[in-house]
Every structure is written in structure tokens, then in C-alpha cells.
Amino acid sequence: MNSDTGHMGLEDFATSAAATPAAAATEPADKDATTVGASQMEAVYDIPVKITAVIGTATMPVSQLLRLGRGAVVELNKKLGEAVDIYANNRLIARGEVVVVDDNHIGVTMTEILSSSPTQQG
């Protein structure tokens, strides 16, 4: 984890995610409590999460917006090649790069997972 920025790299994220279940598995626990915990987690896995990748934003007066027509170019606040912001249910969770998935689709590769600590985000 990069302590200067509070950001977690993909390697750190994978390591911490992999270490958590292993640590929990080594602790002695009541078998019924483990079953209840697992079934509660199964319910969480089905909750839909809206993922949004924002390539940039622009602000303009309504009068300028109304003058836009087919072929108009709206300049965004980000530069070409700059990281895009990735949101989960309107909460910034990561940054990434736009990639081509196939001939007709684009995707986003997550290059930086942001810390979930509210004091680290800002």
C-alpha cells in the first residue's frame, strides 16, 4: 500500500484479499456460526452494483448545450491517456485505463484500487 497517497495497488489488493480468508480459516470457530456467516455472505453476492467509468466531465451553460448539434465536440477535463475514474454505486473505488475488448466493445483495466478508508479519500 502506498502510504503517501493512501492508494492500494492491484498486487496489494490481491494479497490482502487472499490473506483474509486464510486467516479466518485457521481460527477455531463454531461450525454453525461459520455456516450462518457463509449463508449471509451468499445473500450479499446477489446485490447488484452499478459500475461507472468516467472518462471526463465538462461544464457549460444551457445556451451552449442547446447549440450543440451532430458532430459537435465537447472538450472534457482530462487529457488523452489520463486515468479514468471507476465508481461503484457512485463511490470512487479505482482508477484505470480504457482498453479495447473486441471490435465493438471497450472496457476499463483497473490500475489502481483506492483505499476504502474515508480519511484517505478526498
Automatic annotation (TrEMBL):
Gene3D superfamilies, per the entry: SpoA-like (2.30.330.10)
Gene Ontology terms, MF aspect: cytoskeletal motor activity
Function recorded in the entry: FliN is one of three proteins (FliG, FliN, FliM) that form the rotor-mounted switch complex (C ring), located at the base of the basal body. This complex interacts with the CheY and CheZ chemotaxis proteins, in addition to contacting components of the motor that determine the direction of flagellar rotation.
A Pfam family this chain is assigned to: FliMN_C
Domain of life from the UniProt record: Bacteria
Stored NCBIfam families: fliN
Protein's GO biological process: bacterial-type flagellum-dependent cell motility; chemotaxis
Family classification: Belongs to the FliN/MopA/SpaO family.
Species whose genome carries this gene: Gluconacetobacter dulcium
Key words of the record: Bacterial flagellum, Cell membrane, Cell projection, Chemotaxis, Cilium, Flagellar rotation, Flagellum, Membrane
PANTHER family reported in the protein's UniProt record: FLAGELLAR MOTOR SWITCH PROTEIN FLIN, PTHR43484
A Gene Ontology term for the protein's cellular component: plasma membrane
InterPro entries: FliN (IPR012826), FliN-like_C (IPR001543), FliN/MopA/SpaO (IPR051469), FliN_T3SS_HrcQb (IPR001172), SpoA-like_sf (IPR036429)
Membrane topology term: Peripheral membrane protein
Record has Membrane as a keyword: yes
Presence of keyword Membrane: yes
Subcellular localization, as worded in the UniProt entry: Cell membrane; Bacterial flagellum basal body
UniProt name for this protein: Flagellar motor switch protein FliN
Domain Flagellar motor switch protein FliN-like C-terminal: 43-114
